[in-house]
Amino acid sequence: MKSTFTCIVRGWLAVASFRILVGSAVAAPLLTGSAASPARRQLLDSMSSPQVAAPLPAAADSGRTRRARRTDYTVAPGVTWHYEKPGQFRWLTHIPRDIIQYPGYAFKRENIPTIAGLVAASGALWVADMPILHGAQNLGRWMGLDATSTQRTLVYVPFHVGGAKVPFEFNVPDNLNSTFYFLGDGWTHLTIASSFMAYGILKKDNRAAQTATQLGEAILSTGVVVQSLKRLTGRQSPFRSTKDRGEWHLAPSYSTYQSNVSNYDAFPTGHLATAMATVTVIAENYPEYRFIRPVGYSLMGLLGYSMLNNGVHWASDYPIGIAIGYGFAKIAVRNGRTRVAEPTAPDGSTGWQAPIHPRPWYKRGELSPFSYGPFTGGSLTWKL
């Protein structure tokens, strides 16, 4: 009896000691650096070694993994993008790089059919400019849509750069056609970009913050090229035209251009170029929201019509402007994120995940041997 009692006491002491050791191992933090023993440091190094294969993401993964300065988003099966936290105003330094990269991006061999299509479309629209313009304005009169572009100035701060007037002003549209025209205004796109930036900062969302900087980068790069082409081509706006389809005054002087801007700035369209850049950047970064492009292109259609109705642009001004905005948006997005490599399966293929086929509860029973003192048998357990 005494020996049996002694065995029971020793057994409980052994169990208690085991539980204390396990609890200490779980509760104690991992020691690193000089605080860990050599054997423990070796174990930790082997655990953190880059050679250790990372587990494949589970099917129910949220798609976002937060790290110090990065965020990874899975936007589709096997498609994950890496977004760095953008630096303050660093995107401004990317604009010269984007402009330099644009010819190499736009004039690739595979883009030759697209370029030919743009040239053909611009030529065909140039031939039909007058009928298209008159048809749009007649439709506006039939609908009672005021063609006058009227805006109310809410803020106006005079500012001069050399001899040029560059005032800081904020206007709001005063009629429906002006509202459509306002869709291409710089304030509209600035508000969109600022909204993404505010959300990115408040929610610590690198994708939203990168979208904001990409918008600024694409819009300003587009503006530099569009304004340069306007000053080179010098095409009259419809409401200032002195002949059908407008005069072309190639490379007017700076003072001449500034003294009568609307007489020289029709080609290409800056409003649609900027709108296209905005829609493309947002759609590329948020491909899971399929409504972005249809809604964006519909609003661009209203904008394009309003500029015909108020006589600001010819239809042939549109294709090249839209292409410029699209190209700079693609460049900004390409430089603003990185595709994360897909996980690799044991057979070397990519995009692999082990199939998950959960068994019904009645097939989840597990039989295991059981031994306690003089008792030996088996136990059946279920994992629900």
UniProtKB/TrEMBL annotation:
InterPro entries: PAP2/HPO, PAP2/HPO_sf. Residues 1-27 form the signal peptide. Residues 213-336 form the Phosphatidic acid phosphatase type 2/haloperoxidase domain. Keywords: Signal. It comes from the Bacteria. Residues 47-69 are annotated as: Disordered. This is Phosphatase PAP2 family protein. It comes from Hymenobacter ginkgonis. The lineage of its organism: Bacteria, Pseudomonadati, Bacteroidota, Cytophagia, Cytophagales.
